[in-house]
Design brief:
Layout: H1 3-29, H2 32-39, H3 43-49, H4 53-73, H5 81-94, H6 96-107, H7 114-120, H8 122-132
Helix pairs in contact: 1-2, 1-4, 1-6, 4-6, 5-6
């Protein structure tokens, strides 16, 4: 297995563990030790891939915004607001951990990360503007 693929698989494993932790407990109550301990991830490996809790949370938020945006785009909504809302609710029902991260990042982002989260939301916000107009 090539090193690049192995690194990507490791990052994805860490990201999925972090989505579960942040999605269950929110940013403030989540601990890197819990992410590592509950998912068998060596702490050094986490720090090799992410500089710390903020970077990991931003990666989770980016993943959530990107995933929901792609999901909505793939459902051929066009300008049907009712269909948009139905599909959006369906996505969040199917992905409760991502929903928690999405809504926390949108409505009550960690103060130190608010500007970076606004950047991560740009594509999702543009999609919303297009639907609502």
């Amino acid at each position: 297995m090539k090193q690049e693929l192995k690194t990507e698989m490791t990052r994805e494993r860490i990201l999925q563990a972090a989505i579960q932790e942040f999605g269950t407990n929110g940013y403030a109550a989540s601990k890197l030790n819990a992410i590592c301990g509950n998912h068998g991830i060596p702490k050094g490996l986490l720090y090799h891939n992410f500089s710390g809790k903020d970077a990991l949370y931003l990666a989770c938020a980016a993943h959530c915004f990107s995933d929901v945006t792609e999901y909505l785009k793939s459902n051929d909504i066009q300008d049907d607001l009712e269909k948009y809302m139905r599909i959006r609710f369906q996505y969040f029902r199917e992905h409760p951990h991502r929903a928690r991260i999405f809504f926390e990042a949108t409505l009550q982002p960690p103060a130190a990360l608010a500007a970076q989260i606004r950047e991560l939301r740009k594509e999702f916000d543009a999609l919303n503007r297009g639907i609502y107009q």
